[in-house]
Amino acid sequence: RHNALKHQMRSGNPAVNAWVSLDSDHVGEVLSHAGFDSVTVDLQHGMFGLDRAISLLRSVSAGPATPLARCSRNDAAEIGKLLDAGAYGIICPSIDSPEEARAFVASCRYPSQGVRSFGPARGLLYGGQDYVRHADEEILTWAMIESPSGVARAEEIITTPDLDGIYIGPNDLAFALGNPPNGNIGEEVLGIAAELIALAHDAGRFVGIFTRDGGEAQRLLEMGADLVTPGNDVGLLNAAAAERIAQARQ
Ligand code: 3PY
Ligand code: MG
Fold first, then answer.
1. Going by C-beta distance under 8 Å and a sequence separation of 6 or more, which residues neighbour residue 84?
2. Separation of CA 81 from chain center
3. C or N: which end of the chain has fewer Cβ atoms within 10 Å?
4. Is there an atom of ligand 1 within 6 Å of 231 CB?
5. Domain boundaries, the chain
6. pLDDT (tens digit, 9 = 90+) per residue, 31-72?
7. 45 is an active site residue
């Protein structure tokens, strides 16, 4: 099976991504069937560990969305396990230098390009018996830019060989700029996002970004983002709850 998300973005059709932070296979499966193009299992801030992330990836692959994972850190062993578990792309937090970007990409690629070890347990099951031959072309590598150092070195990070895209973390970026995140993406981070989108597109790379809600996601798509995440599963639940309660009490 090829990576439908990668092919979709390549053909110029931006993607809407879901973000799983709840420890529930049912949530993963429901979101995969809800119309999102991809579903990301968030091992950095999700309320679960690696074993449960593997099960959540399985739940996402029960529906049509492309399964992605955000690893908890730039670690070859963890990234390898998430890929073996069937992630079709990895979003790696806090890439602050080109050296870190190179190490991250190497973790996602088999030799001779990278250091990924052989053992594609679930990859073989739904990637097909030729998974290993095509894995390097199909797996998406997203380096998160979410610090002033990452922004300062963005061009070097973006042009890392075999890096597919950058994923902007507006909340950590706002913190690092001295404006603790308040939910919305502020003007300063929006300006940086515009610059990063231009740099990445010049280099033929994708740009993904986390946003607060559908309205903000739409604004970022208008600015040229290739993939937007309109909040996480808890955000969806809270927004729906607030709306229903308000309707009921009207
Ligand atoms: C951030 O905004 O810092 C993120 O990591 C989004 O998930
Ligand atoms: Mg972050």
1. 119, 120, 121, 122, 123
2. 16
3. C
4. no
5. 4-249
6. 999 999 999 999 999 999 999 999 999 999 999 999 999 999
7. yes
Q: What size, in residues, is the chain?
A: 250
CA of 238 to the centre of ligand 2 (A): 20
Per-residue pLDDT reduced to its tens digit, 138-164: 999 999 999 999 999 999 999 999 999
Q: Which class is 4-249 in CATH?
A: alpha beta
Residue 142, both tokens: 């997203």
**Contact between residue 150 and residue 94 where contact means Cβ atoms under 8 Å apart:** yes
Q: What is the DSSP letter of 119?
A: -
ipTM score of complex? 0.98
Q: Whose CA is nearest to atom 5 of ligand 1?
A: 169
User: Can you give the pLDDT at residue 183?
Assistant: 79
* pLDDT at residue 2 greater than cutoff 90: no
- The residue whose C-alpha atom lies closest to atom 1 belonging to ligand 1 is 169
My answer on whether omega of the bond before 61 falls inside 30° of 0, hence cis, is no
**79 C-alpha vs ligand 1 centroid, how far in Å?**
18
Atom of ligand 1 lying closest to residue 175 CA: 3
Q: Give 172 Cα–ligand 2 centroid separation in angstroms.
A: 5
DSSP 3-state of 97 = coil
The Cα–Cα gap between 25 and 1 comes to: 22
Give the orientation angle of helix 98-107 with respect to helix 76-84, to 10 degrees: 40
CA distance 62 to 56: 10
Using CA atoms, how far residue 77 sits from 10, 107, 116, in Å, is 29, 8, 8
Per-residue model confidence (pLDDT) at position 127: 85
The helix (run of H) or strand (run of E) holding residue 210 is strand 206-211
For 225, counting Cβ atoms within 10 Å of its Cβ (0-12 exposed, 13-18 middle, 19+ buried), the class is buried
Residue 59: the pLDDT is 98
